[in-house]
Amino acid sequence: MAHVPAAERRPQLVEAAIDLMARKGVDAGSTRAIAAELGVAQATVHYTFGTKRDLYGAIVERLAGEMIDRVCAAAPAEAVPGEAGFAASVQVMAGELWATYAERPGRFAVFDELTTIGSRDPDIREALRAHQHAMERTAAELVTGLAAETGVALATDALAIARFFLIGFDGLVARHRISDDGTHDADLDRLVTAIVHLAVHG
Questions:
Q1: How far is CA 186 from each of CA 29, 182, 190, 193, rounded to the nearest angstrom?
Q2: What range defines the domain where residue 44 resides?
Q3: Where along the sequence lies the DNA-binding region (predicted)?
């Protein structure tokens, strides 16, 4: 394969690793397997990512970034005033986040597996914590922005609302991965209703 600058090779390797892990699980993502996935020498993976922590951190960054970008893009340019407008906007963004999962569930599975590994590995846990906090801050900023646009006074701290939603959404995804019984749409609606009530009424 022709020489590719490191700046281009890094995202290629991250994507190859995610694709491999989405199909076969995180444990299958050895440097040898990732190199084979992209058709490069194993040394290329070692050179690009000095440690497993670096590789896992880059994977988490890519996956978290995809979710954040998708939800931010779905934020309405102009919301209807009042609680109804706030609720409708939250519903749109929650639906977009669900669509991100539903279109490529294997990528969420990789994130979940890395989270489990991170609970036992302090190096990986640090990378996961940083990106978890980034997602929470972004969600809190979206909630604050929606409240300002709709004229709603938040009765609960925006960061607490963001954490509550992300915890609920993660649980919904985990259940859907095991029991795809068609209840997810109604459950997502209930989660949004709970979020709106927490935000507006406390």
A1: 36, 9, 6, 11
A2: 1-50
A3: 30-49
Of the candidates 102, 94, 58, 103, the residue with the CA atom closest to the CA atom of residue 74: 94
* Structure token pair of residue 181: 């019984």
Task: Report DSSP state, residue 154.
Answer: P
Structurally, the chain folds into a number of domains equal to 2
Residues 144 and 75 in one domain: yes
User: What's the pLDDT tens digit per position in 174-202?
Assistant: 999 999 899 999 999 999 999 999 999 99
Rounded distance between C-alpha atoms, residue 133 and residue 69, angstroms? 15
| Same domain? 113 vs 195 | yes
pTM, full prediction: 0.88
Helix runs in 49-121, H state only: 52-74, 82-103, 105-118
